[in-house]
Design brief:
The chain is of the alpha/beta class and 330 residues long. The protein folds into 2 domains: 204 residues, inorganic pyrophosphatase (n-terminal core) (Alpha-Beta Complex); 114 residues, Roll (Diaminopimelate Epimerase, Chain A, domain 1). It is 36% helix and 20% strand. The protein contains 12 helices and 12 strands. The strands form 2 sheets. The chain has a 6-stranded parallel beta sheet with strand order 3-2-1-4-5-6. A 6-stranded mixed beta sheet has the order 7-8-9-10-12-11, sandwiched between helices. Strand 9 and strand 10 form a beta hairpin. Helix 2 packs antiparallel against helix 5 and helix 5 runs antiparallel to helix 6. The longest helix is centred in the first third of the chain and has 14 residues.
Length: 330
């Protein structure tokens, strides 16, 4: 990855827009915030202060504890379309992974920089000049940022270290997922050395469930279907469920995947009556990504998803059941 070239572009830019994928998660938002904290006082070559805009469609309740989260803006609060020199995209690499309102909120930039660790798809670029810092061997996007910061000798403050460890801990499921390696623990060790506190980060991420999430879990449990002799769990949540209990929910797809004997879990979420989101989680050696790509989705090998437009919840569930019975699941 060409860290030096990215650094040179960032040195000269004054207007920088930071964005992440639809339904922002802790890795995406932590990456944005760590990047901002690291560069906010870094002047351009002309000695001018940089102007940053960190933009999302919504700020999930589960990210309120992230240091500096108050600087993130919601797209609905913008009054004018912005004109950045550089757009920096975190934890995503395709425009189709970005919220439509966020995409429509800015003019095409001179340069786009991508920090991501997901499998890549063929897609249009954000800009004519696009620098891709993408490596699927990294456990999180914040881990790529850590290597970027250290390669250009950028100081890592306690706040930046905390944000980087938030993303690392979240995207490895507390170091439980297949993306964990020796390098993961080396990065975690160094971030701890810089002042991040693992126990506080773990508690903030995994000991912070709302009563609304518990109600959503109850609904999903009541509709649970066991398919393929118990190797697959499929369940769903409706638009009405989210209206009653909120859209904040833990990674229920991973919760169901962790059931003994289950190789694949499927959680169907009716975001509204025209948009259905499907989360897929699996255990090695079965790659959930194979199923996601059948529907134009993406993500990690064992943690991914896709969206369906203009189909009812019932149609999507039926379509998935039919496809699941065609899969070769060991």
């Amino acid at each position: 990855m060409d860290f030096e070239r990215v650094y040179q572009h960032l040195r000269t830019a004054k207007e920088i827009l930071c964005i992440t994928h639809t339904a922002p998660d802790i890795d995406g938002l932590s990456s944005m915030l760590a990047f901002y904290q690291a560069f906010k006082n870094f002047p351009s070559d002309k000695g001018e202060a940089k102007n940053f805009l960190l933009l999302v469609e919504d700020i999930p309740r589960k990210t309120y504890f992230l240091p500096g989260i108050e600087v993130v803006k919601k797209v609905d609060d913008l009054t004018n379309k912005v004109n950045p020199e550089i757009v920096v995209v975190f934890d995503a690499h395709c425009p189709k992974r970005i919220n439509e309102k966020v995409l429509a909120s800015f003019h095409k930039p001179k340069v786009a920089i991508i920090f991501d660790h997901h499998h890549t798809d063929l897609c249009e670029a954000f800009s004519d000049i696009q620098l891709n810092l993408i490596d699927t061997s990294y456990p999180s996007t914040t881990a790529i940022l850590f290597d970027f910061f250290t390669s250009i000798n950028l100081p890592i403050s306690r706040e930046v270290a905390t944000l980087l460890l938030f993303g690392l801990y979240y995207d490895t499921g507390g170091f439980r997922y297949e993306n964990v390696s020796e390098k993961t623990f080396e990065i975690a060790s160094q971030l701890t050395h810089f002042g991040a506190k693992p126990s506080e980060i773990a508690g903030a991420i995994f000991s912070n469930k709302s009563l609304g999430e518990i109600e959503l879990l109850k609904r999903a449990l009541n509709r649970l279907k066991l398919l393929r002799d118990g190797k697959v769990i499929l369940t769903y949540l409706t638009k009405k469920d989210f209206e009653l209990y909120g859209k904040e929910l833990d990674d229920l797809a991973s919760f169901f995947r962790d059931v003994e004997g289950v190789m694949l879990s499927v959680l169907v979420k009716e975001l509204d009556y025209e948009h259905i989101s499907v989360s897929l989680r699996s255990k090695p050696p079965f790659p959930a990504l194979h199923l996601a790509k059948m529907f134009g989705g993406g993500g990690h090998t064992y943690a991914c998803g896709f969206k369906v437009h203009s189909k009812s919840l019932e149609e999507v569930v039926k379509m998935l059941e039919e496809k699941i019975y065609q899969l070769q699941i060991i």
